[in-house]
Amino acid sequence: MAVFTRVTEPELVSWLNNYSLGQLLELQGVASGIENTNYFVTTDNGRFVLTLFEKLAASELPFYLNLMSHLAHHDVPCPSPVANRHNQFLGELNSKPACIVSRLPGKSLMNPEVIHCAAIGEILGRLHNASQSFAGTMSNAHDATWRAWAAPQVTPFLSPQDAALLESEVAFHGAHTLAALPQGVIHADLFRDNVLFDGTNIGGLIDFYFACNDSLLYDVAITVNDWCMGTDSTLDEARTQALLQAYHAVRPMQKEERIAWPIALRAAALRFWLSRLYDMHLPRENELIHAHNPDQFKYILQRHIATNSNVIWL
Description:
Elements: H1 9-16, E1 24-29, E2 37-43, E3 46-52, H2 61-73, E4 91-93, E5 96-102, H3 114-131, H4 144-154, H5 160-175, E6 183-186, E7 195-198, E8 201-205, E9 212-215, H6 216-227, H7 237-250, H8 255-281, H9 295-307
Antiparallel strand pairs: 1-2, 2-3, 3-5, 4-5, 6-9, 7-8
Helix pairs in contact: 3-6, 3-7, 4-5, 4-8, 5-8, 6-8, 8-9
């Protein structure tokens, strides 16, 4: 059970006095939380999700909450934060920063087909278009500076071959950046478990707490590396084409982005290989993350390097 901070019904009832959400009917812990504590909350006014932030500081959270509110008001299906009686999205519950957002329909889809990947491409294009008018900014916590810092930290735990691969790839991306490509606010973690499907329709995008400003193409590559990846660590062409073409129809890709596509795929794979290595070998004290196997993204990275990921859009 990934509920790290316990909330009782009387505590929540007292907290909800600051909101106009009606009477509490049900409080249910959510087992799928990774870094935060989540509860499903049902009141006589609807269904919501309560989040207690276990790592992010209160000063960091307005960016994410304001972003979700902005996207929700621009017809991007995502959790819409509920303001309290003081017109604030963020509160405090049991000594943790906390918010309550709308609960979206659907469930995560672990075995996507072409139709689902097309839907993901379309919604990601809409997200990127809508984010262009969002005024908030947040630097990428997993940028080149972080890579240069984190790689030496994990190197002692690696085989000579993996250490050489990591060093080489960090150097490669230091020399081949995506900084000149179109930039904006990106989701940066749009994996399968962060999208809810209601049948073949997308019920919502969730978990915006890695969102940041970076290359839009990088966000596409992160998404493709999960949604379109086959069991042999190579991209499934049909799913990849469906996602990219649907995205391109909403936000047309520039020539420079198409040229940089293989680099973006490698950068996205490196980010998650390195972060998973760090989480596995150097977990923080009282770490809440359930470490994923880093090898998944090492294999994906190696495949991208070997094939040059020569996938075109049209």
